[in-house]
């Protein structure tokens, strides 16, 4: 699906519940080092299931959005909860994103560029 946002045309890609806002003509999209399997391995090894959510039987997905800068860092000011599960789960998802290592940035015209991404953090 193509959509115009702020004067730019984007192709919105949905891959395994991960949404990439891919600029038309973009050479390469943002990627966690080793790909999504390595990202979810990081999540599995570092997720601290909030006690209050676990005791209340809360499970499901927090959808979190953020922008990966041209240098591969996550722009803290862009981190947002797109779909909430429970306040403590939302906070844990934000912590995971803030603490993960640099991503491989998106490439457009041979140069690194920013890219917005939305992905689920699963609590079960």
Sum up the structure in keywords.
single chain; 124 residues; alpha+beta; 6-stranded antiparallel sheet; two-stranded antiparallel ribbon; 3 helices; 8 strands; 23% helix
Question: Could you explain how this protein is built, in words?
Answer:
The chain is an alpha+beta fold. 23% of the residues lie in helices and 37% in strands. The chain has three helices and eight strands, in the order E-E-E-H-H-E-E-H-E-E-E. The chain has helices at 36-46, 51-55, 87-99; strands spanning 2-5, 8-15, 18-23, 60-68, 80-83, 106-108, 111-113, 115-123. Strand 2 and strand 3 (18-23) form a beta hairpin. The longest helix is centred in the C-terminal third of the chain and has 13 residues, at 87-99. It is elongated and about 50 Å long. The relative contact order is 0.25.
Layout of helices and strands, plus pairs?
Blueprint: E1 2-5, E2 8-15, E3 18-23, H1 36-46, H2 51-55, E4 60-68, E5 80-83, H3 87-99, E6 106-108, E7 111-113, E8 115-123
Antiparallel strand pairs: 1-2, 2-3, 3-8, 4-5, 4-8, 6-7
Look at the helices and sheets and give the structural class: alpha+beta
Strand order of the largest sheet: 1-2-3-8-4-5
Low-confidence stretches: 1-16
Given the C-alpha coordinates, what overall shape results?
elongated
> Counting H and I runs of at least 4 residues, what is the number of helices?
3
Q: Please give the radius of gyration in angstroms.
A: 15 Å
Major beta sheet summary:
6 strands, antiparallel
Which percent range fits the helix content?
Answer: 10-25%
Average pLDDT, all residues: 85
Distance between the termini: 31 Å
Strand percentage lies at 35-45%
Count the E strands.
8
N to C succession of SSEs: EEEHHEEHEEE
């Amino acid at each position: 699906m193509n959509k115009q946002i702020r004067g730019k045309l984007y192709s919105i890609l949905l891959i395994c519940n991960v949404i990439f806002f891919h600029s038309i003509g973009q050479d390469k999209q943002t990627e966690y080092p080793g790909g999504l399997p390595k990202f979810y391995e990081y999540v599995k090894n570092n997720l601290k299931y909030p006690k209050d959510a676990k005791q209340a039987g809360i499970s499901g997905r927090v959808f979190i959005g953020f922008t990966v800068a041209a240098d591969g860092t996550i722009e803290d000011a862009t981190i947002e909860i797109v779909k909430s599960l429970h306040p403590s789960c939302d906070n844990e998802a934000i912590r995971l994103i803030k603490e993960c290592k640099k991503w491989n940035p998106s490439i457009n015209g041979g140069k690194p560029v920013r890219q917005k991404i939305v992905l689920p953090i699963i609590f079960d």
